[in-house]
Amino acid sequence: MARKCQIVKSKQTPKYSTRIVRRCELTGRSRGVYRKFRISRIMLRKLALEGKIPGMRKASW
Question: What is the value of pTM for the model shown?
């Protein structure tokens, strides 16, 4: 879990656009965040398995 100060700092608009830090909206994780959903890969998988993301399901072949 990310510290509160890191989450608050990442929500501020940076001086330069390249300094944007994307964090998971649910956990605050900074790595492996999908831009489309704004959540981390771990939470994306968990929510997809629970069926809470419409149109997404686990691949099987």
Answer: 0.78
